[in-house]
Amino acid sequence: MEIHHNDQIIKFNIEYKKRKKIKIQIDQGRRITVLAPKGTKEEQIIDSVKSKATLILEKLKSMEKKTKDIVENKYEDGDKLLYLGKYYIMNIIMDNNIEKNMIDFNNEEFTITLKAYDKDTIKKLVKRFYKKQCKKVILKRIKEYDNHFNKKIKNIEIIESKNKWGSCNTNGKLDFNWRLIMAPIEIIDYVVVHEMCHLAHMNHLKSFWRLLGKIIPDYKKRSEWLQYYGNRLNI
């Protein structure tokens, strides 16, 4: 679906959810999704998008600028990798005698050992390392905050997603985006606690935000960081 505003086109998808208000989301790929309560008329959704059209276009423009500011990693010796909010030098070593390609991190720098240089192979190694470390870190952070919640987590999964950092279902299963491992630990904590709060409140009503604010008082600041810098958490 689309609307026209000041000679510009705003395209968006609609998802009907069990919620009370219309919400407009823009993901990292600048795709727009309107979350609407079940039974909401299409005209009402269009009116809501039109009323926020200027803000939507400003947000899209800002996201486009931030994307242009990102310098693409060439994955060459001496390049840097983002890990837990900091950049670390990446050393690439060629060794025909190794049995398999390897990646190692010693808390100061990354060392990647390859049989032969290949950019895609390096990216796969980095991604595999990030996913593994993401689960380890998130499990530790959950343990840190577990005493705030009565309902226990049934399962945790590290996922690939372009439009969400985490999710929680009614069965107590939590999903987290592997890209979080590139964010500072306080941002990871925000996402972890946000999803854990859904164990008590499967919504975003006042009771949910009260609980989140009690545990993470500056959650708004952390959320804003993720909105502004989230598109940089990529390889």
TrEMBL record:
InterPro entries: UTP_pyrophosphatase-like, YgjP-like_metallopeptidase. It comes from the Bacteria. Residues 20-227 form the YgjP-like metallopeptidase domain. PANTHER family: UNCHARACTERIZED PROTEIN YGJP, UTP PYROPHOSPHATASE. This is YgjP-like metallopeptidase domain-containing protein. It comes from Anaeromicrobium sediminis. The lineage of its organism: Bacteria, Bacillati, Bacillota, Clostridia, Peptostreptococcales.
